[in-house]
């Protein structure tokens, strides 16, 4: 090996050693943000927990997720027990359970729902676990949170008593985890086209027992203990109004497998450690969660909104990790005799990943805090409108951003960026593609926003909430100018759209504004967060990051590429934690 080889390898080792051993303590912004968003007692209580889980996530969880995602360790369908009993089981590599133990026991991401308020605390933990991608369990955690909320909010006493203790335990071996199956082969966005049927069949568990018949086409966490699913209740109308929401246990009360069959597991691009299958329900026993006639409302309120928030926070975690990997690499890797960090073109890439991941972190966790306020009944109608619209827009935009951030990270690593064994970035990119699709495609979310604006006038509360947030970020109105202009442009567009009766055309007209509104929200959250910074040098650098985010995402004209611009990207890229 030549001296040059040795030096290059030493640089790569330096990059590896630069990577954080704790995703929480190495993240100054996250600590500042949670200190502001959490009540002081809750912050004091959460601090130790986040600190210890930050270490687990950066260490054992990260390592187990790598092993678990190797294609020879992926889950396999094992439908029968050794002695020929039908189990519809899935065999996992031991590293899958290592990830699960870390997330359920060290992370306690689900068991914090036993306390109230819980969204922000749970999402802060989920943000940390998402640094390692989906990891086989982050989708199940989001689904389980939906089951917890649906049962707590709409389930009967009997159903709660039967399953809540298992759902809320942090003992991984004893836990009950959840899944949520809506999609059928004829359409996922068009849930009203569902045909799976539910037929009443006597009583058990002190309530009506239903039998579920039909096929579900996309079933993630396919070996979950409790499936929350939509099915058409007998005698109901067409469309979403005819959908009930049912909880279907994997095992019947006598311990035998419920009446469904796992047809096959899907061979997926991303989230590969987590099994997604196709299921046939052949008279499976289930129980309605709330009134069957209100199933669609229940699933939207408790399940889909929860999953969309998890998705957004997950994308923020993925972005942060990609930025940190790229940042460390650029400082260690040399080309043309100097660290590649020193090239302004590289600083521009890092300024972009840094400012975007910072804005996503602030916005996604602020949404979790607002969700806590909503659950505590402290939001007026206007703020409720804000939460609903912001959740949908943030879900759409966050994964578009994280996709770009991970790609930029991969580009930073040059050829090594494309190598699975070199870093987690290829896996983060693949997971992110799935995040873009499930819980509502981009188009579906824009279409829903158009409906919300036209039918329920939710733009009024949303724009009022956004304006109030931007105005509250005192002293940062200059960098936020493009965000204020976004609101003006949207108001103008809404006037032009007022007479448009074709929802497809209205969605087409709204789309660029929908993306810009999401960015204005992320910018407002980040500005409010920066306002708390006490170190003036850092505050100045982060204000530049905010200005960069606003100009690159919301600016009407490309930023002028002069010396001042070069200085700005250098300042942002030089932020070290
Ligand atoms: C790995 C993976 C796991 C999944 N796990 C689950 C699960 O556990 N449970 C579950 O229920 N689902 C799951 N899904 C399904 C997912 O939620 C759906 O794929 C998604 O909702 C989109 O539905 P679809 O695939 O039927 O696409 P379609 O609805 O057929 O959409 C096709 C295209 O048409 C566009 N489109 C649809 N409607 C409109 C409109 N009104 N305006 C403009 N464009 C429109 C979409 O944006 C998309 O580009 C999973 C998907 C994946 C990839």
How would you describe the shape?
A: globular
Q: Which band does the percent of strand residues land in?
A: 5-15%
Main beta sheet: strand number and arrangement?
Answer: 5 strands, mixed, barrel
Q: Specify the structural class.
A: alpha+beta
DSSP strand tally? 11
How far do the termini sit from each other? 35 Å
Strand order of the largest sheet: 4-5-9-7-6
Computed over alpha carbons, the radius of gyration is 24 Å
- Low-confidence segments: none
The averaged pLDDT comes out at 96
Helix run count:
17
Order of helices and strands: HHHEEHHHHEEEEEEEHEEHHHHHHHHH
Bound molecules: flavin-adenine dinucleotide
**Helix content class:** 55-70%
Blueprint of the fold:
Blueprint: H1 3-18, H2 28-37, H3 40-68, E1 76-80, E2 86-91, H4 94-106, H5 119-129, H6 138-154, H7 157-168, E3 178-181, E4 197-204, E5 207-220, E6 226-233, E7 243-249, E8 260-265, E9 276-288, H8 295-332, E10 334-335, E11 338-339, H9 344-375, H10 381-412, H11 425-437, H12 442-456, H13 458-472, H14 481-497, H15 503-530, H16 536-554, H17 563-573
Parallel strand pairs: 3-6, 4-6
Antiparallel strand pairs: 1-2, 4-5, 5-9, 6-7, 7-9, 8-9, 10-11
Helix pairs in contact: 1-8, 2-9, 3-4, 3-5, 5-8, 5-9, 6-7, 6-8, 8-9, 8-10, 8-11, 9-10, 9-15, 9-16, 9-17, 10-11, 10-12, 10-13, 10-15, 12-15, 13-15, 14-15, 15-16, 16-17
The structure holds flavin-adenine dinucleotide.
Flavin-adenine dinucleotide is lined by residues 180-183, 187-190, 218-220, 268, 271, 276, 434, 437-438, 441, 443-444, 447.
């Amino acid at each position: 090996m030549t001296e040059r080889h040795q030096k290059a390898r030493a640089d790569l080792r330096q990059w590896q050693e630069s990577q954080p051993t704790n995703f929480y303590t190495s993240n100054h912004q996250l600590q500042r943000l949670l200190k502001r968003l959490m009540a002081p007692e809750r912050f004091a209580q959460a601090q130790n927990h986040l600190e210890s889980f930050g270490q687990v996530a950066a260490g054992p969880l990260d390592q187990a997720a790598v092993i678990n995602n190797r294609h020879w360790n992926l889950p396999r369908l094992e439908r029968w027990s050794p002695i020929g009993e039908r189990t519809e089981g899935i065999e996992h590599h031991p590293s899958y359970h290592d990830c699960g133990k870390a997330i359920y026991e060290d992370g306690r991401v689900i068991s914090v729902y036993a306390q109230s308020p819980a969204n922000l605390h749970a999402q802060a933990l989920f943000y940390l676990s998402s640094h390692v991608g989906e990891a086989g369990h982050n989708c199940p955690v989001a689904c389980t949170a939906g089951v917890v909320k649906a049962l707590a909010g709409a389930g009967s006493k009997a159903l709660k008593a039967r399953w809540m203790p298992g759902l809320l335990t942090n003992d991984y071996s004893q836990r009950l985890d959840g899944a949520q199956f809506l999609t059928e082969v004829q359409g996922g966005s068009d849930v009203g086209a569902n045909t799976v049927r539910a037929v009443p069949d006597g009583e058990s568990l002190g309530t009506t027992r239903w039998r579920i018949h039909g096929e579900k086409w996309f079933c993630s966490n396919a070996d979950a203990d409790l499936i929350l699913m939509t099915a058409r209740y007998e005698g109901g109308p067409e469309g979403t109004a005819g959908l009930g929401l049912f909880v279907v246990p994997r095992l019947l009360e006598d311990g035998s497998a419920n009446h469904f069959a796992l047809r096959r597991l899907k061979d997926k691009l991303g989230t590969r450690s987590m099994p997604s299958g196709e299921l046939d329900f052949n008279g499976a026993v289930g129980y309605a969660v709330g009134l069957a006639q209100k199933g669609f409302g229940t699933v939207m309120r408790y399940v889909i909104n929860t999953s969309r928030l998890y998705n957004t926070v997950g994308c923020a975690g993925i972005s942060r990790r990609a930025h940190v990997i790229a940042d460390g690499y650029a400082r260690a890797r040399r080309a043309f005799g100097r660290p590649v960090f020193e090239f302004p073109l590289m600083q521009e890439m890092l300024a972009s990943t840094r400012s975007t991941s910072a804005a996503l972190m602030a916005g996604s966790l602020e949404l979790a805090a607002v969700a806590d306020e909503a659950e505590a009944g402290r939001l007026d109608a206007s703020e409720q409108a804000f939460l609903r619209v912001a959740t949908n827009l943030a879900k759409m935009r966050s994964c578009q951003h994280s996709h770009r951030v991970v790609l930029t990270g991969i580009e930073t690593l040059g050829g090594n960026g494309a190598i699975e064994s070199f870093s987690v970035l290829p896996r983060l990119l693949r997971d992110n593609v799935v995040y873009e699709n499930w819980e509502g495609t981009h188009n579906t979310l824009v279409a829903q926003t158009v409906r919300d604006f036209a039918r329920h006038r939710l733009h009024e509360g949303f724009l009022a909430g956004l304006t109030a947030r931007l105005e509250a970020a005192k002293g940062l109105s200059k960098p936020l100018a493009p965000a204020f202009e976004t609101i003006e442009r949207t108001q103008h567009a809404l006037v032009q759209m007022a007479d448009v009766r074709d929802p497809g055309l209205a969605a087409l007209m709204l789309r660029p504004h929908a993306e810009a509104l999401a960015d204005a929200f992320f910018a407002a959250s980040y500005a409010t967060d920066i306002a708390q910074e006490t170190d003036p040098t850092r505050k100045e650098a982060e204000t530049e990051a905010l200005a960069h985010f606003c100009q690159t995402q919301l600016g009407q004209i490309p930023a002028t590429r002069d010396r001042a611009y070069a200085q700005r990207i250098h300042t942002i890229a030089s932020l070290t934690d």
